[in-house]
Design goal:
Chains: A alpha/beta, B alpha/beta, C alpha/beta
CATH topology of chain B: Rossmann fold
Strand order of the largest sheet of chain B: 2-1-3-4-8-7-9
CATH topology of the largest domain in chain C: Rossmann fold
CATH superfamily of the largest domain in chain C: Thiamin diphosphate (ThDP)-binding fold, Pyr/PP domains
Helix content of chain C: 40-55%
Order of helices and strands of chain B: HEEHEHHEEEHHEHEHHE
Number of helices of chain B: 9
Strand order of the largest sheet of chain C: 3-2-4-5-7-6-13
Number of strands of chain B: 9
Number of domains of chain B: 1
CATH class of chain B: Alpha Beta
Shape of chain B: globular
Strand content of chain B: 15-25%
Oligomer: heterotrimer
Order of helices and strands of chain C: EHEHEHEHEHEHEHEEHEEHEEHEHEH
Largest sheet of chain C: 7 strands, mixed
CATH architecture of the largest domain in chain C: 3-Layer(aba) Sandwich
Structural class of chain B: alpha/beta
Largest interface: B-C, 31 and 38 residues
């Protein structure tokens, strides 16, 4: 099994940390993992993206241009990365602020209104966990147990009290993700 | 010619008035007659010997006339790239905090190419001693203008005299480092008369002793001469130094440890 | 104690490995994309545990001279930087080579020339392998291709540096510095108490004074010293060549790539093989010494070699020298912070095959 994932959005949306939690969780499942962020000035308020690869084999290139799954959290990223999904692959996007929706028909498209849901749940900081929960529903490459364990590993101790809130958000994400197009 | 006879009867321990420090090697110093470096080297060797710290002292020699200092004093040495001695001294002292670490640098080395290293090691308050020989000229490379060259002073790169409008004024770097909280003791001395030699030896010994206190950087400027570069005899050079260098670079303490401020009158 | 598994950035792995390898001193200056190294060390504060000294210097120039000073005391000392900062350090590096001091220098390469980009590149190959500073000298150059090797090469680097009294450079890039992977960390080693006989730690009565210098005005004696260095570099060429082969046994087309490019090429070899092209990969782990002999041997079975680099074509010259005209040698690369993709490499290889 090899799952090649791109997560892209604004800096501050928790893009990098979502990827990091995936990587930690994969490591706990004895997978090979790589987490390759875009770095530099882009990180500060601009667009942020990260490539996460989870595999049962040694990972060759950590930098690739085509992905099994692309998770999109803003319009700029959708415009830039819709074409980066492999034919037959998966695109997950948050519709918040999106004016031009995904158009490809050769990929499966899922929509998750995570921004809206996070506000409803009064839990804006766990927005990215809602998205991750949605991803896991579509691609159950990681177990929920390992994701929670991965959360513990990647979060500093002082935030551990927020883990139940994160768990609720993960679960909620699985419930609200919607299929738009299926191949 | 009158024959010298009976000299052997005078060479006896009880007649000893002066001897070469055991830490000065037998290498013949390459300095020009009348140069202040050899005197300063002697003082340095004597202090290290008298304090009994040969096995605990590491010196850093510069690029400049004193580049071969490591040939003359029998202690462990590191030879620095031009201007970098304080950075090297920083690492040595941090890694071997119980050792005595000093740099010996000229004006081009310390106040031009090594300005950043000088200022920042002083600003960090590294527990090292910086000995700064200021003769207002690049001696080794043949008498070019230094940051400390006086206004109007001729050198091979200021053949019509230092024009401050285009070449800047002499840099009083010792005054600058004295303003930094990191420095503990900052003084300006000379070695051109026996009295000044004695005074310089006194302050240099003190600076070595201060290193045990771990209170910050000690900085000794020695205003010196360059008879060859200045194109003067040694006697003329010393006179010229008194008349021209000292007004720009007045001798005396610029910063003394707080607890000693009352008991320590200014040396000049 | 057992090895510990962690998920870390390449930069963090260097820092943690340095603490665990018993490094005595780190001297650095921040620059993207490697500032995590000094940040990690400052936060870990190893002065309290191992006694390791960590100093943020006023410049890269000062930092490398601090390394000179520490190395001259026989201590395990290191610095890290990225391309523009490494250029500044070249003065200190040539003095360290000239004074025959051991140390480790990490270059997390970004694209240039000048201020360039902060994205990953391999454009400092010539600088690292062919000299960098003035004078006849060589660094031992290690090229990690994973976060694991970023950690492992710190210890290996110091072993080689002390074995040969020679500076060692770990030539990495922004991608390996910034990416996170699993890394097995060695258990902590105590800092060494051994003092090499040449170190300046204060002259005792039982030995002559030690002088760390690279100055010799007498040309006859300087040449004797230069010859001694040449002998040392020859011994390094003889004993320290390291490389990894991937599907080379039956390969007709050899990709030669190091670091991030080698990771890309591993995948390219898989893709090429799927398309019936017998490709293999030789990954130099040491760039100096270069695996010249092995590449020359392989040339007998090959139709072509392709050097893949994130540069305008630098390592390709060493591949050409190794192959010495026996078969065609080509170059494919991306620059300016762009990383080649496996598909691109395969496409280029196919074009070369058709083109002959």
């Amino acid at each position: 099994m090899t799952e090649e994932i791109l997560i892209a959005g604004f800096g501050g949306q928790g893009v990098l940390s979502m990827g990091m939690i995936m990587a930690y969780s994969g490591m706990l499942q004895d997978m090979e993992v790589s987490w390759m962020p875009s770095y530099g000035p882009e990180m500060r308020g601009g667009t942020a993206n990260v490539i996460v690869i989870l595999s049962n084999e040694r990972i060759s290139s950590p930098i690739i241009r085509h992905f099994d799954t692309v998770i999109i959290l803003n319009q700029q990223s959708l415009d830039k990365f819709e074409q980066a999904v492999k034919p037959g692959g998966v695109l997950i996007y948050d519709s918040n602020g999106i004016s031009r929706h995904p158009e490809r028909k050769d990929i499966s498209v899922y929509r998750i209104d995570a921004t809206e849901e996070a506000i409803k749940m009064n839990s804006p900081k766990t927005f990215n966990m809602i998205v991750l929960g949605g991803f896991l529903r579509i691609k159950p490459v990681l177990t929920m147990e390992d994701v929670v364990a991965g959360l513990k590993k990647s979060l500093p101790e002082r935030y551990h009290k927020m883990i139940p809130e994160n768990e609720r958000s993960l679960k909620r994400g699985g419930e609200i993700i919607r299929e738009i197009n299926k191949v | 010619m009158k024959e010298i006879t009976g000299i052997k009867e005078y060479i006896k321990p009880e007649n000893l008035v002066y001897r070469k420090s055991s830490l000065l090697t037998d290498d013949i110093m390459h300095y020009c007659p009348g140069c202040g470096h050899s005197t300063t080297h002697r003082i340095l060797a004597e202090i290290i010997e008298e304090e009994g710290i040969q096995q605990d002292t590491i010196g850093i020699s510069p690029v400049g006339c004193s580049v071969f200092l490591y040939n003359y004093i029998d202690i462990d040495w590191q030879e620095a790239a031009h201007g970098r001695a304080p950075a090297i001294a920083t690492a040595i002292k941090r890694l071997l905090p119980d050792k005595f670490v000093f740099t010996y640098q000229g004006d081009g080395d310390l106040a031009a190419i090594g300005t950043a290293e000088t200022i920042h090691s002083c600003n960090r308050g590294e527990n090292i001693l910086i000995i700064f020989i200021n003769n207002g000229i690049y001696g080794m490379t043949g008498g070019q203008m230094a940051p400390t060259t006086l206004p109007g002073m001729k050198s091979s790169t200021s053949p019509y005299g230092r024009d401050v409008a285009t070449m800047g004024n002499p840099l009083k770097i010792t005054d600058i480092v004295a303003t930094l909280p990191g420095t503990f003791y900052v003084t300006r001395q000379s070695v051109h008369t026996p009295a000044n030699v004695r005074r310089t030896k006194r302050v240099m010994r003190k600076a070595f002793q201060y290193q045990k206190l771990n209170r910050g950087t000690c900085f000794i400027e020695i205003v010196s001469n360059c008879p060859s570069g200045w194109k003067m005899t040694p006697v003329q050079a010393n006179k010229w130094m008194e008349e021209n260098m000292f007004p720009w670079y007045p001798l005396g303490d610029l910063k003394v440890p707080e607890e000693q401020q009352d008991q320590q009158p200014k040396t000049e | 104690m057992e090895r510990e598994l962690r998920l870390m950035k390449g930069n963090e792995a260097v820092a943690e490995a340095a603490i665990r390898a018993g490094v005595d001193g780190y001297f650095g200056y921040p620059i993207t994309p490697q500032s995590e190294i000094i940040e990690y060390l400052m936060e870990a504060d190893p002065a309290k545990t191992t006694g390791m000294v960590v100093v943020q210097a006023e410049s890269e120039v000062a930092a490398i001279n601090m390394v000179y000073g520490g190395a001259g005391c026989g201590k395990k000392v290191m610095t890290t930087s990225s391309s523009p900062g490494i250029s500044l350090k070249q003065e200190g590096i040539t003095y360290i080579a000239g004074a025959e001091l051991p140390c480790v220098i990490v270059n997390v390469v970004r694209g240039g020339p000048g201020l360039g980009t902060i994205q990953p590149a391999q454009s400092d190959y010539f600088q690292a392998v062919k000299g960098g500073g003035h004078g006849d000298y060589h660094l031992i150059v290690l090229a990690p291709a994973s976060v694991q090797e970023m950690a492992d090469f710190v210890g290996l680097g110091f072993d080689l540096a002390f074995k040969y009294r020679n500076p060692v450079m770990i030539l990495s890039d922004g991608a390996i510095g910034q990416m996170m992977e699993k890394v097995w960390l060695d258990p902590p080693r105590e800092r060494s108490k051994e003092i090499p006989e040449w170190a300046t730690t204060g002259k005792t009565a039982d030995r002559k004074r030690n002088i760390i210098t690279s100055l010799e005005l007498d040309p006859f004696r300087q040449e004797v010293f230069n010859r001694k260095l040449v002998e040392k570099y020859d011994a390094i060429r003889e004993n320290e060549v390291r490389f990894e082969e991937y599907l080379c046994e039956d390969a007709e087309y050899l990709l030669v790539a190091y670091g991030t490019s080698a990771r890309v090429c591993q995948k390219a070899v898989q893709l090429a093989r799927e398309q019936g092209i017998k490709a293999g990969l030789l990954r130099p782990i040491t760039l100096f010494p270069f695996p010249t002999k092995r590449i020359s041997e392989l040339a007998g079975q090959l139709k072509m070699a392709l050097a893949v680099e994130m540069s305008a074509g630098q390592m390709v010259e060493d591949v050409q020298l190794s192959i010495n005209g026996k078969i065609p040698v080509h170059y494919y690369g991306r620059m300016g912070g762009m990383v080649p993709t496996p598909d691109e490499v395969v496409e280029n290889l196919k074009e070369r095959i058709i083109g002959g």
